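Pilot study result, target chain (128 residues):
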Amino acid sequence: MEERYRQSLLYDFYGELLNEHQKAVFSAAIFDDMSYSELAEEFGCSRQAAFDLVRRINSKLESYETKLGLVSRFSSAREKNKEVEEMLSEICESLEEIDKEINKDFKKKINYKLDELKKLSNEVFEKF
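Predicted structure:
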């Protein structure tokens, strides 16, 4: 997983556990893509202090992930949701290929159920 993407996920899941100063520094570093020199100027510290602070915050977020595993579970749920969507797409494609002798009402019912399954899968993922 790309490092910045992982850091943003860690922040999304565990950012509220940081104090306001840590949130501001990490947010500026990750989301605003500020360099350590820019962070130092913005927050009134040395470049080395900015580097150390970002490293400590990242370490703290990784520690939360090690203990709680929310990002890992989220990524796993996303992958499973993708698999469900792919299977549903394959089923829909297969239904389109089925001979036209199948009753149209039956096809509508199947398509409706498949759409409901897809919605439910997305709802479960979004609520996570």
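One observation from the pilot: The mean pLDDT is 87. A full batch analysis is planned for the follow-on phase.
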